[in-house]
Amino acid sequence: MTLPLLLPDAPEPRHCDSCGTPVPKGPLVQGYGSGCAKKHGITAPQIARPRADGQAGPTLLDLLNQPPPVESPGHVVCRQRTDAEQEAVRWAQQRRGLSDD
Questions:
Q1: For residues 22 and 15, is the Cβ–Cβ distance under 8 A?
Q2: What is the rounded distance in angstroms from the CA atom of residue 20 to the CA atom of residue 26?
Q3: What 3-state class would DSSP assign to 14?
Q4: Which pLDDT score, from 0 to 100, does residue 71 have?
Q5: How far is CA 5 from CA 2, 9, 82, in A?
Q6: How far is CA 62 from the centre of its chain?
Q7: Is the pLDDT of residue 39 over 80?
Q8: Where are the alpha helices (DSSP H) in the chain?
Q9: Is 15 helix (H, G, I), strand (E, B) or coil?
Q10: Rounded to two decimals, what is the model's pTM?
Protein backbone atom coordinates (compact mmCIF):
# COMPACT_ATOMS: atom_id res chain seq x y z
CA MET A 1 0.00 0.00 0.00
CA THR A 2 1.36 3.42 -0.94
CA LEU A 3 0.66 6.52 1.04
CA PRO A 4 0.07 9.85 -0.71
CA LEU A 5 2.85 12.37 -0.44
CA LEU A 6 1.93 15.07 2.03
CA LEU A 7 3.86 18.31 1.84
CA PRO A 8 4.27 20.31 5.04
CA ASP A 9 2.33 23.43 4.02
CA ALA A 10 0.07 21.85 1.40
CA PRO A 11 -3.56 23.02 1.48
CA GLU A 12 -6.23 20.43 2.10
CA PRO A 13 -7.77 19.06 -1.08
CA ARG A 14 -11.00 20.81 -2.00
CA HIS A 15 -14.09 18.87 -3.04
CA CYS A 16 -17.07 19.86 -5.15
CA ASP A 17 -20.26 20.23 -3.09
CA SER A 18 -22.37 18.69 -5.85
CA CYS A 19 -20.48 15.57 -6.91
CA GLY A 20 -17.82 15.31 -4.19
CA THR A 21 -14.90 14.93 -6.57
CA PRO A 22 -11.66 16.63 -5.59
CA VAL A 23 -10.92 19.89 -7.38
CA PRO A 24 -7.12 20.00 -7.71
CA LYS A 25 -6.91 23.24 -9.70
CA GLY A 26 -9.07 26.21 -10.44
CA PRO A 27 -11.48 28.13 -8.30
CA LEU A 28 -14.56 26.80 -6.61
CA VAL A 29 -17.68 28.71 -7.64
CA GLN A 30 -20.06 28.80 -4.68
CA GLY A 31 -18.59 25.46 -3.60
CA TYR A 32 -18.94 23.80 -7.01
CA GLY A 33 -16.20 22.78 -9.41
CA SER A 34 -16.15 24.40 -12.83
CA GLY A 35 -18.05 21.57 -14.56
CA CYS A 36 -20.80 21.36 -11.94
CA ALA A 37 -21.13 25.16 -11.82
CA LYS A 38 -21.85 25.20 -15.58
CA LYS A 39 -24.26 22.28 -15.22
CA HIS A 40 -26.21 24.06 -12.46
CA GLY A 41 -26.26 27.35 -14.39
CA ILE A 42 -24.14 29.30 -11.93
CA THR A 43 -21.58 30.27 -14.56
CA ALA A 44 -22.39 31.17 -18.14
CA PRO A 45 -21.71 28.55 -20.78
CA GLN A 46 -18.74 29.16 -23.01
CA ILE A 47 -19.84 30.79 -26.25
CA ALA A 48 -18.06 29.89 -29.43
CA ARG A 49 -16.06 32.78 -30.85
CA PRO A 50 -17.08 33.92 -34.31
CA ARG A 51 -14.53 33.31 -37.01
CA ALA A 52 -14.15 35.38 -40.13
CA ASP A 53 -14.16 33.73 -43.52
CA GLY A 54 -11.14 34.04 -45.77
CA GLN A 55 -10.55 37.45 -47.21
CA ALA A 56 -12.08 38.10 -50.58
CA GLY A 57 -10.40 40.55 -52.92
CA PRO A 58 -6.94 42.07 -52.99
CA THR A 59 -4.75 42.50 -49.95
CA LEU A 60 -2.81 45.62 -49.09
CA LEU A 61 0.36 44.16 -50.61
CA ASP A 62 -1.51 43.48 -53.85
CA LEU A 63 -2.55 47.13 -53.98
CA LEU A 64 1.02 48.32 -53.35
CA ASN A 65 2.46 46.18 -56.16
CA GLN A 66 0.06 47.45 -58.83
CA PRO A 67 1.36 49.80 -61.54
CA PRO A 68 0.26 53.43 -61.19
CA PRO A 69 -3.12 54.22 -62.72
CA VAL A 70 -3.24 55.58 -66.25
CA GLU A 71 -4.29 59.21 -66.28
CA SER A 72 -7.02 60.50 -68.55
CA PRO A 73 -5.97 62.20 -71.84
CA GLY A 74 -6.52 65.68 -70.37
CA HIS A 75 -3.74 65.16 -67.78
CA VAL A 76 -0.07 64.86 -68.65
CA VAL A 77 1.97 62.38 -66.67
CA CYS A 78 5.67 63.24 -66.35
CA ARG A 79 8.22 60.53 -66.86
CA GLN A 80 11.94 60.25 -66.33
CA ARG A 81 14.15 61.15 -69.28
CA THR A 82 16.34 58.43 -70.71
CA ASP A 83 20.12 58.92 -70.69
CA ALA A 84 20.07 59.69 -74.41
CA GLU A 85 17.34 62.31 -73.97
CA GLN A 86 19.16 63.86 -71.00
CA GLU A 87 22.36 64.06 -73.04
CA ALA A 88 20.47 65.70 -75.94
CA VAL A 89 18.99 68.32 -73.59
CA ARG A 90 22.41 69.02 -72.05
CA TRP A 91 23.97 69.40 -75.54
CA ALA A 92 21.15 71.76 -76.66
CA GLN A 93 21.55 73.89 -73.52
CA GLN A 94 25.30 74.15 -74.07
CA ARG A 95 24.75 75.33 -77.65
CA ARG A 96 22.38 78.05 -76.46
CA GLY A 97 24.62 79.03 -73.58
CA LEU A 98 22.11 78.04 -70.88
CA SER A 99 24.18 75.32 -69.25
CA ASP A 100 26.10 75.77 -66.01
CA ASP A 101 28.94 73.54 -67.30
A1: yes
A2: 15
A3: strand
A4: 66
A5: 9, 12, 85
A6: 18
A7: yes
A8: 34-39, 60-64, 83-96
A9: strand
A10: 0.34
